[in-house]
Write a structure and sequence with these properties.
This protein is α/β, with parallel strands linked by helices. The protein is built from four helices and five strands. This is Putative pre-16S rRNA nuclease.
Length: about 140
């Protein structure tokens, strides 16, 4: 079993996948939003034998939901219909900030950070969920 983590944005979708033991999240790629995004995700789901999808849920810092949360909910329904997999919305507050800090610590240039930030945000979202699973099972 593997879990797919997604950071759903207006222009891109960051993609990460768990290892088979559900311990770590690895960044896969950033998909440009287009008519082919569902085909690309289908191929990733097939290649990695994904059983569940974790989708970053963009809550405001005060816990309220805005327009992006509604778009994310709609995308979750599309994913459920397309792939027949469970899709869980996972609070993504501070995931992009965490990803930016990691990339800054790695001393990547601004141009390189821009290329991988969405993929790293997906890693942070998925790793947060995996850590939650591990703590819950202890």
């Amino acid at each position: 079993m593997r879990i797919l983590g997604l950071d759903f944005g207006e222009r891109t979708i960051g993609v990460a996948v768990s290892d088979a033991l559900l311990l770590t999240a690895q960044g896969i790629k950033t998909i440009r939003r287009s008519k082919k995004e569902l085909e690309e995700l289908r191929q990733i789901i097939h290649d990695y034998e994904v059983d569940e999808v974790i989708l970053g849920y963009p809550k405001n810092m005060n816990g309220t939901l805005g327009p992006r949360a509604t778009m994310t909910e709609e995308f979750a329904e599309i994913l459920k219909g397309e792939y027949g997999l469970p899709v869980l919305l996972w609070d993504e507050r501070l995931s992009t900030i965490g990803a930016q800090r990691s990339l800054l610590e790695a001393d990547l240039s601004r141009a390189k950070r821009k290329k991988v930030i969405d993929k790293m945000a997906a890693v942070f979202i998925l790793q947060g969920y995996l850590d939650h699973l591990r703590i819950k099972s202890e």
